[in-house]
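Homework help board

Subject: predicted structure for assignment chain

Our instructor gave us this sequence and asked us to write out the predicted structure in C-alpha cell form, then describe one feature. I got the C-alpha cells but I'm not sure how to describe them. Can anyone check?
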Amino acid sequence: MALDKNQIAKRIAQEVKDRYFVNLGIGIPTLVANYVRHDIEVEFQSENGVLGMGPFPFEGEEDADIINAGKQTITTLPGASFFDSAFSFGMIRAQKVDLTILGAMEVSENGDIANWKIPGKMVKGMGGAMDLVASAENIIVAMMHVNKAGESKILKKCTLPLTGVGCVKKVVTELAVMEITPKGFKLLERAPGVSVEEIIKATEAELIIDGDIPEMNID
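My C-alpha cell output:
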C-alpha cells in the first residue's frame, strides 16, 4: 500500500528530535507539524518570519494574518515569535536550524535536489530554496516517488535545474525511506505491503539493498 501525503509526513515526524529547530518547506513538509510527538519540544520555523508554528488550524478558526511561506494559514504555539525575512534568513544562513524538510521534483543518487523550476513554466521566484539547501546540514526530502506519468523522480542524475548539490541526507516517498550514501540511495524501509521489487521498478537510480528491508512504522 503506497502512503498518502499525510502518512509521508507522519513518517518524517519520527525524525524530529527533542529541542530541534525545524524548517518546513512548502507542500508535504508543512503537514509534519501535525504529527510530531507531544512529549518533545520542537520549534518550527518558516522563512517568511515565524518561529513556533503549530498544526494547521481547524476550519473556521483560521487567521488570515498568520501564514507560512506557502501562504497557508497556520497556528502558533505559546511563546511564538514573528520577525522580518532578513532576520529569518539570518537564522538559516547561520545554521541555527537543526533539520530542514523540503519537497522536491527530483533527487539524484549523490544528494542533488531540484525543487524550484520546471523550464518553460512561469515561477514567481526561488524563494528561500537556495539559502536552505546551501546552509542546512540535515535535509530530509518529502516527495512522491514517481510523477503523474509514472516516471521515477529518484534519479541517477537530476534533469531539472538544480537547487542544491550533494545536500540531501534522506528521502521519504509514498513507497520507501532511502538514505543518501557515498555509493548512492540505500533502501532503509518500505511502505506497508510494498515489495522491494516494486520499489526497484519505480526507481531509475540504483538502490543499495542490504539484507531484509523492514516495513515503515507509521502508527
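Reply (TA_rk): Your C-alpha cells look well-formed. For the description, you could write something like this. The chain has one domain: 5-208. That's the kind of observation they're looking for.
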